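2024-03-11 09:14:02 INFO worker-7 job=invfold-0412 stage=load source=structure_tokens
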């Protein structure tokens, strides 16, 4: 056999293996199907041409029998079929759509309800996340009633389950305009997840986006203030977050203050929001800068008292900078001055917190 026949023989053997696995998964007994599902996963994971393998396996007809295995009462059958379907769906939009078309959503939703099988629940959450990235699947997933179940997982799922749940909720809730507003019960676990994660991470961006969406309802606003460190966590995100997460956080606080200045103003001020908002007027995205200015104006005392609005403060800083370094370096110097003001304000904030803590300790 010549060298040029090598690749052809390899592809023939690969196709023969796919046909054998397909025959097992379609016609075999339960144990044979379980073994075939394991072979599907292994075949995809162990080959450099995994994208082509996914396409060939789907074309051979393995998706429908794998979906049917999700309905089995056998734990192993459910687990191996979930893993195989996850591998088939990875980086393949057509397979994601076919999995949903073949009826995978109802058994996946049922698996999300399982309280005593964390492995299956976590895998089902990962599958929902993967399938939710395909636009044609989003409406089917939303209509299935999966959103309340994903919210439950935010509180009682595994760490990976909660992370996947946030991303799946983000994919689904932001797929419609205006976004769907889920139950405010999601707020406490979302605040806790935001509190624990790096504020500049992609995960924080998705979490703050969900909090912003829920804050549009009255129940959502109340849930933020009633959750321990709810407003403080948003203030910390404004101080340490990425451009995206800071914009979501300031939008949420602005939504609260606009809805009822008398109710939320003191709550926001008491968490030391001013330094972060001042910094955001310089370093945030264009929308975040504008919202930070608006919020600063809402947080100041009533207009008949001699308080500086954020726009007046910025003008004074720029004027000082122009006098110090001239027009060429005005922006750079203004940013430096504002940064120094923010730093000093934060130091004052920390001093006040320490005094408050000392007073609390003494009284107790």
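2024-03-11 09:14:09 INFO worker-7 stage=emit residues=364
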């Amino acid at each position: 056999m010549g060298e040029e026949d090598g690749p052809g023989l390899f592809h023939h053997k690969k196709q023969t293996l796919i046909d054998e696995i397909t025959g097992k998964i379609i016609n075999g007994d339960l144990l044979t199907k379980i073994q075939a599902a394991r072979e599907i996963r292994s075949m995809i994971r162990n080959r450099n041409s995994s994208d082509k393998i996914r396409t060939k396996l789907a074309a051979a007809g393995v998706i429908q029998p794998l979906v049917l295995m999700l309905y089995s009462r056998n734990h192993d059958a459910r687990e191996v079929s979930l893993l195989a379907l996850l591998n088939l769906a990875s980086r393949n939009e057509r397979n994601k759509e076919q999995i949903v078309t073949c009826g995978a959503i109802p058994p996946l939703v049922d698996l999300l309800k399982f309280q005593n099988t964390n492995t299956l629940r976590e895998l089902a959450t990962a599958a929902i996340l993967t399938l939710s990235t395909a636009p044609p699947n989003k409406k089917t997933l939303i209509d299935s009633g999966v959103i309340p179940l994903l919210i439950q997982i935010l509180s009682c799922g595994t760490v990976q389950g909660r992370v996947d749940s946030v991303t799946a909720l983000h994919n689904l809730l932001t797929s419609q305009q205006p976004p769907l507003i889920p139950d405010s019960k999601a707020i406490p676990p979302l605040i806790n997840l935001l509190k624990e994660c790096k504020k500049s991470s992609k995960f924080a961006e998705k979490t703050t986006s969900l909090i912003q969406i829920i804050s549009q309802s009255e129940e959502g606003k109340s849930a933020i203030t009633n959750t321990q460190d709810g407003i403080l966590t948003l203030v910390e995100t404004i101080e340490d977050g990425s451009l995206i997460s800071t914009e979501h956080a300031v939008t949420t606080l602005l939504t609260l203050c606009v809805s009822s200045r008398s109710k939320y103003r003191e709550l926001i001020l008491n968490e030391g929001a001013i330094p972060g908002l001042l910094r955001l007027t310089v370093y945030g995205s264009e929308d975040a800068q504008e919202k930070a200015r608006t919020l600063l104006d809402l947080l100041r005392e009533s207009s008949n008292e001699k308080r500086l609005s954020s726009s007046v403060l910025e003008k004074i800083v720029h004027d000082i900078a122009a006098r110090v370094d001239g027009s060429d370096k005005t922006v750079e110097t203004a940013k430096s001055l504002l940064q120094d003001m923010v730093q000093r304000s934060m130091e004052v904030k920390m001093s006040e917190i320490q005094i408050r803590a000392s007073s609390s300790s003494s009284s107790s």
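2024-03-11 09:14:09 INFO worker-7 stage=report msg="Residues 303-308 have pLDDT under 50 and may be disordered."
2024-03-11 09:14:10 INFO worker-7 job finished
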